[in-house]
Amino acid sequence: MSTSAASTSPAIVSIGEPLIEFNRPKEGDGRTWLQGFGGDSQNCAIAAIRQGATAGYLTSLGQDWMGDAFLDLWKSEGLDASQVTRHPTAPTGVSFVTHGPAGHKFDYLRKGSAASLMKPDDLPKDYIAGARFLHVSAIGQAISADGRASCDRAIEIARAAGVKVSYDTNLRLRLWDIETARQHIHATIAKCDIALPSLDDSQQLTGLDRADDIADFYLKLGAPMVALKMGSEGALLALPDKRIRIAPHRVQSVDATGAGDTFDGAFLARLLEGDDPATAARYANVAAALSTTGYGAVTPIPRKDAVLAALKQRS
Asked: Where are the alpha helices (DSSP H) in the chain?
């Protein structure tokens, strides 16, 4: 990536790995797959854009049809891809999503992907420094040593420039073991402004069961704001001086792929709009619920008007 950047950065800069997604519907014949788009940091950026924010992405794509498809998607969504590079030989990563009694399951073809080969010295410093939020995910750290170094360097650049860091603790134990994950995720929590963990991942990472205990754990690590996503149980917003439970928004859910990422992007977008954290969390909670009513990570992410209409019905 170039060390120079456009004169104006988007409000949110996200870093990580996009994945071409193949999703097998529960009610299908077992042989039919829906091709879509995924990758948690990418999903977050698109979710933010659909709520009215500006967002850009730091990643690398392969010189393949999948990379072309992502660039077409991002152009149609209005996502700034000006700092995205194309690797001459490495491929774009692929994910496969299947569904069972325990929920959705991921399988991957991502080893040696273009995104996993990003180098920290190639990051566009001015582009990161010009944003209001840098969004990072633990998956971006877990995909490779270079990916980890790049995410960590992006956080350093952001903090030095006064850019707030949001961090999703997305845990993928196929990418790293639990002890390595704990070490790096806990260290990153201490550097972030907004922690965006999910309950199931946090239970594995902390060894704690109760949402309040998990929120306390992350606050004590140094995160000044924790939005704990609890799926069908809603969310818990924890600040040093207050704690707010966000009631679930009931929908007919078919696929939770990307729901947490939708929460992340919607939450950041509403903070940028000037919402207080509790109002932003309520909005994000509804957006995440609506995203589970269709298959795939990106296609069902709702737009602002749909979320506002659902919120109006709740009031």
From this structure: 40-50, 65-77, 125-129, 138-142, 145-160, 178-189, 199-206, 211-221, 259-273, 277-290, 304-314
Q: Is the pTM of this model over 0.90?
A: yes
Do residues 115 and 16 touch, judged by C-beta distance below 8 A?
Answer: yes
147-205: per-residue pLDDT in tens? 999 999 999 999 999 999 999 999 999 999 999 999 999 999 999 999 999 999 999 99
CA 55 to chain centre: 12
Query: Which 3-state string (H, E, C) describes 82-136?
Result: CCCEEECCCCCEEEEEEEECCEEEEEEECCCCCHHHCCHHHCCHHHHHCCCEEEE
Task: Kindly list the structural domains of the chain, giving each domain's residue range(s) and its CATH number in brackets, ordered by start.
Answer: 12-314 (3.40.1190.20)
Residues sharing a CB contact under 8 Å with residue 177, sequence separation 6 or more, in sequence order: none
Measure the CA–CA gap between 98 and 91, rounded to whole angstroms. 22
- Write out pLDDT tens, residues 64-122: 999 999 999 999 999 999 999 999 999 999 999 898 887 778 888 899 999 999 999 99
User: Rounded to 5 degrees, what angle do the CA atoms 38, 86, 184 make?
Assistant: 55
